[in-house]
Amino acid sequence: MFVEYLTNRERLSVLDILPLEKGQNILEIGPGYGQMTGAIAQRVASVDVIEADTAQARFCRIRLDQEGLDNVRVTAGGSEAGLPYADGAFDGVVMNLVFEWCAVRSKLPHEQVQRAYLAEIARVLRPGGFLYLSTKNRYALRLLVGGRDEHMAYRRFGSALPRAIGKALMGRERPHGYLYSFKALRSRIADAGFRIETPYWAVPDMRWPTRYVPLDDAQVGKAQKNAALSFGSRRISWLTRKMPASWVKHFAPGLVFLVRKHAG
Questions:
Q1: Which domains does the chain have, with CATH numbers?
Q2: Which segments in the chain show pLDDT lower than 50?
Q3: How far apart are CA 176 and CA 182, in angstroms?
Q4: CB 84 within 8 Å of CB 30
Q5: What pLDDT does residue 2 have?
Q6: Interatomic CA distance for residues 175 and 62, integer angstroms
Q7: 28 phi/psi in degrees, rounded to 5
Q8: Separation of alpha carbons 120 and 147, rounded Å
Q9: Rounded distance, CA 193 to CA 3, Å?
Q10: DSSP 3-state percent helix, strand, coil across the chain (nearest 5)
Q11: Whole-model pTM?
């Protein structure tokens, strides 16, 4: 399963929506084992990646060398949200399934580190540059029906619980991540100086996406009626098809935003 996760080409469907162009300089935050890095590097002038896990950073470097890609620079670091790059250095930033985890190595509150990351991303982006940010959804159907949440020590319902109840259940144990609702994350991104362009629905889920559906009611409704699409388990798929199209963004497995830094 792990090898499949690292090498499955279907997971690169994100490239269909990323506005990548020759000549661009791209930053990828938290590349993991380089699942997306090589594919991005083949489409742009250069890629910088910063990975907080030193072992993963080394793996990523070896993998890129084996793929013959010499336009990628790998840096180990970033656990405290500081980005060692100049202002306006990048045309785009990719942060895929990292935002929820980005304070896991920090003693600072999760929200504080997440706000700092967004501010740093805005700083290193040129005016008009894009940010692709994907993260899990606090109110994902999977959690609302009692699923276990890895960010809350695998407790049932997890992040979907009221914050005060979740905090009481965790006791002295620090949550392993911090999730947002659709509205809360959209607001946080906008407050950091970004213009919201297109939110997407990753189908069937965030880890194994095969397509990205723009979150407007017409396209969501069309996807709901597509019998060939799965939205997860049989139960989750049934619930997803039955809900109004306008609700899907609030209860989808994850949140995907493609946004732009304001030009001035």
A1: 2-136+180-200+252-261 (3.40.50.150)
A2: none
A3: 20
A4: no
A5: 65
A6: 32
A7: -110, 120
A8: 33
A9: 38
A10: 40, 25, 40
A11: 0.94
Q: Rounded to whole angstroms, how far apart are CA atoms 245 and 222?
A: 9
Residue 5 in tokens = 């996760």
pLDDT at res. 1: 62
d(CA 97, CA 166): 22
Which amino acid, one-letter code, is at 41?
Answer: A
Residue 2 carries which DSSP code? H
| Helix, coil or strand: residue 126 | strand
CA 42 distance to own-chain centroid = 21
The residue count for the chain? 264
Cβ(217)–Cβ(203) below 8 Å = no
Is residue 125 within 8 Å of 133, Cβ to Cβ?
no
Kindly give, in sequence order, each residue whose CB lies less than 8 Å from that of residue 90, ignoring residues fewer than 6 positions away.
25, 26, 27, 48, 124, 125, 126, 129
Q: State the Cα–Cα distance between residues 202 and 156, nearest whole angstrom.
A: 23
CA distances (Å), 133 to each of 72, 87, 254, in order? 20, 20, 11
How far is it, in rounded angstroms, from Cα 253 to Cα 244?
A: 16
- With CA atoms as reference, report the closest residue to 91 among 140, 18, 143: 18
List, in sequence order, the alpha helices (H) in the chain: 2-7, 37-41, 54-66, 110-124, 141-144, 163-170, 182-191, 217-224, 234-242, 248-251
The CA distance from 125 to 25, in Å, is 10
Single out the residue of 22, 33, 152 nearest to residue 97, CA to CA: 33
Helices (H) and strands (E) in the chain, counts: 10, 10
